Amino acid sequence: MDLWSDLPTGLNLSSASTHNNEHCMYFHLILTDECNLCCRYCRAKAFEVLEESDDETAPRINIDPDLPRDLDFDLDLLYNFLRKDPAPTLTFYGGEPLMRADLIDRIVREAPVRQFMIQTNGILLDRLKPEIVNRFSTILVSLDGDESLTDYNRGNGVYRTVMENIRKIRERGYTGELIARMAVTERTNITDSVHWLSHNNDCSFSSIHWQLDANFAGDFSRRQFAEWARTSYNLGIRSLVTDWIDHMESEGAVLRWYPFLDPMEDLLLGKKSLLRCGSGHANYSIMTDGHIAPCPVMIGMKEYYVGHIRSADPADLGRMYVGGECDGCGIYDFCGGRCLYSNITKPWNMAERKTVCGTVANLHSALTEAVPRIRALIGKGTITLADFAHEKFNGCEIIP
User: Fold this and answer.
1) Average of pLDDT values for 225-241?
2) Has residue 367 been placed in a domain?
3) What is the distance between the alpha carbons of residues 378 and 267, in angstroms, rounded to a whole number?
4) Residue 76 confidence class, pLDDT cut points 50, 70, 90
5) What does each C-alpha distance from 86 to 80, 83, 113 come to in angstroms?
6) What's the rounded Cα separation, in Å, for the pair 321 and 343?
7) Is 327 within the bounds of a domain?
8) Mean pLDDT, range 153-179, rounded to an integer
């Protein structure tokens, strides 16, 4: 394990096996770095001149300049690697993975896995045949709320195209979990957007997840992120938690809002958590050249690779977890350190970090305060603990 001898402060590696009795392994497969959209909070930022973080401890990250843009290895290597795990899950990822629909079609037909998932912007969902789409246990589709907000962030006409494709796959027999995956910015009213995707008659989503656009400290000076988090987002989270429980009480059902669902299950069970996305302990990512990274956004970060599919054993990938400033934090067992990638790249100065961590503390507080009411509903038989059960490590970061 000499590769890990010079880990940045705040990260630790355990040589213990990543397998446990609760799950087998999850793997994101990067099919391509290409994308057919240029979203404001994603690729569009590559065209902006951003400031560097003023955190003097932020390391310089070496990115492999020779990493292929598209998958570039024999698929038999992938299949042989996956066979070493008793029941792996494979998630297609990019870029936009459906730009390589040809590879998806072949891999779904050939790969020895327990189940398939995909994270997509949904524009090209109609490229896949129904017999392929219907093999997915989970499809995560990027939508940010209603039509005006989604199209502002992602491009004119995106919302209607995606919704039409979702309608088609449902009509053609897709019965798996369909997750709306929102990117949340200062233009987002989190309460309105979650309710829109959860209750709008045009939507067919069974679940919702959201992630804060907070990982790009270079643009923080031009934004009102801290003010928005304090006056809008954090208050909206508390309002949504109340709405979530009100729905349990009135309908006898638990809405699958992942930033609430996964942590609440653990709070009810008294369980601690490592990184809730699974990165570095249950969920690993296969790069386009076959190298394995702990996280799907750590593309080309070769210093942190844990092996190559040619020779690695899924049972022996090193376990990575967040330490440093997070050690001793009162909610560490709740969020597990929030994000492996940000703890490596350190994109925030101290004030910015406090703002981001403050949103996690607010989420923790709102959910913890809600536990007695939920326990009472379980006690009355309105809902059951089993209603919180869900697929772990399904591509949702869980902690926004």
Assistant:
1) 97
2) yes
3) 14
4) very high
5) 12, 7, 8
6) 10
7) yes
8) 96
d(C-alpha 170, C-alpha 143), whole Å: 17
Q: Are 28 and 285 in contact (CB under 8 A)?
A: yes
pLDDT tier for residue 19 given thresholds of 50, 70 and 90: very low
What are the Cα distances from residue 76, in Å, to 305, 307, 344? 21, 17, 32
Cα distance between residue 94 and residue 311, in whole Å: 24
Q: Is the dihedral of CA 223, 226, 232, 238 positive or negative?
A: positive
For the sheet with 283-286, list strands across it: 256-257, 207-212, 177-184, 136-142, 115-120, 89-93, 26-30, 283-286, 291-293, 307-308
Tally the domains of the chain. 1
Each residue's pLDDT tens digit, 330-351:
999 999 999 999 999 888 889 9
The predicted model gives 90-100 an average pLDDT of 98
Return the structure tokens found at 145.
Answer: 């709320």
In the block, tokens 């057919």 appear at 36
8 Å CB contact between 189 and 148: no
Residue 143 and residue 122: Cα distance in Å, rounded? 9
Residue 398 inside a domain? The answer is no
Retrieve residue 252's tokens. 């006898």
Q: How far apart are CA 259 and CA 30, in angstroms?
A: 25
The DSSP-derived string for 159-222 is HHHHHHHHHHHHHTT--SEEEEEEEE-TT--HHHHHHHHHH-TT---SEEEEEES-S-GGGGGG
The residue behind tokens 């979203």 is 39
> In this structure, are residues 397 and 209 in contact, taking their beta carbons and an 8 Å threshold?
yes
- Which residues are CB-neighbours of 341 under 8 A, at least 6 positions away? 215, 279, 295, 297, 298
Least confident range of 275-279, 311-315, 316-320, 395-399? 316-320
Which residues does 301 contact at the CB level (< 8 Å), separation at least 6? 61, 62, 63, 64, 293, 344
Domain CATH number, residue 104: 3.20.20.70
* DSSP annotation of 29: E
Provide CB contacts within 8 A for 164, sequence distance 6+: none
Q: Are strands 26-30 and 89-93 parallel, antiparallel or unpaired?
A: parallel
* Residue 42 buriedness (CB in 10 A; 0-12 / 13-18 / 19+): middle
Does residue 136 belong to any structural domain of this protein?
yes
Residue 29 CA to residue 290 CA, distance in Å, equals 9
User: 234-251 and 350-380 helices cross at what angle (nearest 10)?
Assistant: 10
Domain that holds residue 270: 21-52+64-388
